[in-house]
Amino acid sequence: MTIRTLSYLPRLSSPDQRTAPAPQLHQPASKIVNLVPSDLSRGMNADYGVPTELAGPLQQRRALYQPRLPPCLQGATVRVEYDDATTTIDPTGAHAVAQAFPRTYGQRLVTFLSPDDTAGAVKAVNERQPIRVGVVFSGRQSPGGHNVVWGLHDALKVYNPQSILYGFIGGTEGLFANKTLEITNDVLASYKNQGGFDLLGRSIDQIRSSKQVSAAMTTCQDLNLDGLVIVGGVTSNSDAAQLAETLVQKNCKTKVVGVPVSLNGDLKNQFVETTVGFDTVCKVNSQLISNVCLDAISAGKYYYFVRLMGRKASHVALECALQSHPNMLIMGEEVALSKLTLMEVINKICDGVQARAELGKHHGVLLIPEGLIESIPEMYALIQEISILHNNNVPVTEIPTQLSPWAAALFQFLPPFIRRELLLHQESDNSAQLSQIDTEQLLAHLVEAEMIKRTKEGRYKGKKFSSVCHFFGYQARGSLPSNFDCDYAYVLGHISLHMIAAGLTGYMATVANLKDPVHKWRCAAAPLTAMMSVRRHLRGPGAIPIGKPAIHPSPIDLKGKAYE
Amino acid sequence: MTIRTLSYLPRLSSPDQRTAPAPQLHQPASKIVNLVPSDLSRGMNADYGVPTELAGPLQQRRALYQPRLPPCLQGATVRVEYDDATTTIDPTGAHAVAQAFPRTYGQRLVTFLSPDDTAGAVKAVNERQPIRVGVVFSGRQSPGGHNVVWGLHDALKVYNPQSILYGFIGGTEGLFANKTLEITNDVLASYKNQGGFDLLGRSIDQIRSSKQVSAAMTTCQDLNLDGLVIVGGVTSNSDAAQLAETLVQKNCKTKVVGVPVSLNGDLKNQFVETTVGFDTVCKVNSQLISNVCLDAISAGKYYYFVRLMGRKASHVALECALQSHPNMLIMGEEVALSKLTLMEVINKICDGVQARAELGKHHGVLLIPEGLIESIPEMYALIQEISILHNNNVPVTEIPTQLSPWAAALFQFLPPFIRRELLLHQESDNSAQLSQIDTEQLLAHLVEAEMIKRTKEGRYKGKKFSSVCHFFGYQARGSLPSNFDCDYAYVLGHISLHMIAAGLTGYMATVANLKDPVHKWRCAAAPLTAMMSVRRHLRGPGAIPIGKPAIHPSPIDLKGKAYE
């Protein structure tokens, strides 16, 4: 037996390999419980949502945390206050947005407050009808996603214990096919404050084509839903706005509510301070980067090229740089703004390596956001051409021969592993699979070549340049959520219920004052259309056509305070 | 400015990017303190051993931990008990070891106990002379290394406050050049319970050539050292034995003591239960693997190929598999024993993928030790040939042309990125740079090709196989040590002092009963020569010639309990 599956793995109590059982700072996800052969670490079955024991002591301890609520959400009822009507954050696009969303454009901002009149509020509770809500994960798993479901569930049961919450199994695919799991306290028990989206899973992350929209509507009608909560990022919330508009137009009673969950942190605007998951991912990655920094200085001989998640914006990389202090951060936004070519980026890095060598230092740590590659003009153009050929169903093997002469020349210049990765099939939103492109290896490779060249030319006299490459992506994404994300997600779940109860549709649940303690948080809801803009230039091979209103990823503000 | 160095990074108090300041489970290495432009995360200067503020709140909290000591080490003196004389763990090699180490072979086992007669012990303390000790990091940084120095320092000052501890700056290079830092409480303050080896650094990790041995002896004499403590793994402790023998032969009074610090966990034998760092690295990696497992099951569409450290033995991978429950573990020891070829390994993985697809599962997690590639017979032969050509100073570009026809054919079959990595320059011990060979990508690449082939032949009907590759190496190595490693390292530091005081040389500090609480730990010292064996077959392109006695990495016992 060479390849061992779980069924053969011994229990940890076997003494040979076990390390000492003293209480530990880094507790492992240890203890093998209820193992199903060949299955994964939570002892989960093939089906989603099966209540299971938690995998290890750390998970168990984490499950005990009770997220906090601001005062307005602590009672059985809230007061709903309507503010000004909204336009869009992009005034020049207002007309296009208004035309595309005739029924849901221009809605008013909403704030949730503690009730003025407690006696009246209690009376109101007794007159309430049970409410029926569905929830779906759409978009990449982010730490905290489970707590949105938990908060929604708790608020729903306080609203009226007869209320029902359905989770769609397998993400949007489950929504289209009406595959549901009723969310109960028992189901939630092993998912409270836990990472991943494995309570329900996720799949194609789109509710966009008319077939998809109509399948979603049919499910809402079949389940007689009062509300549908869509948990996701930029594109999922654009889809939520479209679905809300369609349901209103077709007189379907289901209210559509979006919840901002995305580890990239790029769903930020005047209504949304941050997304669920961003805090955790930055903290976990910063810890790993700090470890690598210590490693670099201990041996003093390697440059570490660390790629971080962040396709359209470098938020994660910038935040991690602030927390962990690497030597260099190469921000996509800056590269794009300065229109730096690939070789200019390489030369800047080499200049840094050379300057450090003159100080006697032959080690360092560089952070690279995965979206960097699309920020380099000539690489962007190449990826664009490949994307168009993909969309025209040109076979992968023929793509290199159909490129323009300049794109073909660049393609041939790149190392073979990057060529292969550039040709990979695309993401569900038709953009390049940036997470699969080893940009850090490309840079390390070219920096090494340039340093060898400088050495030969006598311009560099330091030690041989050596690099180690890392991609810190998926290992943070599945992490246990931070207290902040536990609280924030749980609060957003509560707000979602109150939005549905208030009859709001095409809105996103939001919280303001997140830098203050939880009791000062301001709970609100903002129309999704108010967050939209209209792109006149294609930015990245995304699926949203030019001129179509959508919520777009917000890049880092190069005039903003954090950047300065 | 595109490439930003630390001097330009803002403080975390800038509000734009900062995430909420709630108390967190995963605390970041945040807070920018005393930043030196262009330097690393601990705010360290170019020089080693400069006392600095700790980088973040987690590091600060960690520094408060006081490691525990077993009763025998809590007083100012210990009782030294001599047990039986030793031979070697390899009876057939005993003669060769005895010949190579005429002065240090066959020494007795030593145990340290609480003193019988406290009054006598106190009297003894007053008659003690100050003691002079040097300590050097040799080998890869492992969490806990700093606590060896801390324990040694504390024991030394209790022994006689006039005693002096020197740390060699820059590892063995500092030893040869007599570059020292006097270790004081002030120096230690910001390194207690911290990861990395950055208090002193490390470099070439060898005391082997006669030039190196004689430089080390000169330093010991110049500093008038009573003892030299070498902190390291398998090869460093082999070197320690050789140095001890030489110093005895040359009538140098310095006693040489080895301390088992290695994250690979391969320095294990009847005297050594585990090495410092192994516990931490397995726990941190297991947590990351658990995160990846959650991620895999959430999206349900990727196979994750995770490579782990472990050159000659798969201890880390096995322990992590026990803690985190992946789907497959490919152990080098098993592959070597069964003499599985590369394509047999690939086919076994593909069979697993296919079996899971029939259960409707298109995701999974595989663990791969970095040493796996040398366990595959034909790959081993290829690496061997390349190594020999390297040693004969054949230029890298010509190596492919000078391979044997079969090795050349295999080399050409491999993807270009692996070909490039195989030709990399070698480690300090002349072995291949396994950490730089992306074995996980090689396997993922070949598995994908095989799954496409099976699809075309109609043997596989599941969804398209997709993989994501990770190397969990350096990010765990720099981690904060676990409580266990903090305690274990601190205790070993104490034992080292008592060994020197007892006049032992060519010994390793050891602790038995590590699975029990600290108060039951048994403190001892074992002759390094007793751990030696003589290899008759070359195992991996290591530097230790056939027939020369050495401490060898212990592979996983395929008949052992952990494996079963």
TrEMBL record, chains A, B:
Residue span(s) of domain Phosphofructokinase: 132-493
The answer to keyword Cytoplasm applying to this record is yes
Q: Where in the cell is it found?
A: Cytoplasm
**Keyword annotations from UniProtKB, A to Z:** Allosteric enzyme, Cytoplasm, Glycolysis, Kinase, Magnesium, Metal-binding, Transferase
Give positions of region: Disordered: 1-26
> What biological-process terms (Gene Ontology) are attached?
fructose 6-phosphate metabolic process; photosynthesis; response to glucose
- Domain of life from the UniProt record: Eukaryota
Would the keyword Zinc be found if you checked this record's keyword annotation? no
Pathway recorded for this protein: Carbohydrate degradation; glycolysis; D-glyceraldehyde 3-phosphate and glycerone phosphate from D-glucose: step 3/4
What this protein needs as a cofactor is: Mg(2+)
Which InterPro entries does this entry report, sorted A to Z?
ATP_PFK, PfpB_PPi_PFK, Phosphofructokinase_dom, PKF_sf
Ways its activity is controlled: Allosterically activated by fructose 2,6-bisphosphate.
One cellular component GO annotation, for this chain's record?
cytosol
Enumerate the catalysed reactions: beta-D-fructose 6-phosphate + diphosphate = beta-D-fructose 1,6-bisphosphate + phosphate + H(+)
Annotated Pfam families:
PFK
**Which molecular-function annotation in GO is an example for this chain?**
metal ion binding
Summarize subunit and interaction data from the UniProt record for this chain: Tetramer of two alpha (regulatory) and two beta (catalytic) chains.
User: In which family does this protein belong, per the annotation?
Assistant: Belongs to the phosphofructokinase type A (PFKA) family. PPi-dependent PFK group II subfamily. Clade 'Long' sub-subfamily.
As for what it does, the entry says: Regulatory subunit of pyrophosphate--fructose 6-phosphate 1-phosphotransferase.
Return the protein name. Pyrophosphate--fructose 6-phosphate 1-phosphotransferase subunit alpha
Q: What organism does the UniProt record list as the source?
A: Triticum turgidum subsp. durum (Durum wheat)
Its organism's taxonomic lineage begins at: Eukaryota, Viridiplantae, Streptophyta, Embryophyta, Tracheophyta
Gene field:
PFP-ALPHA
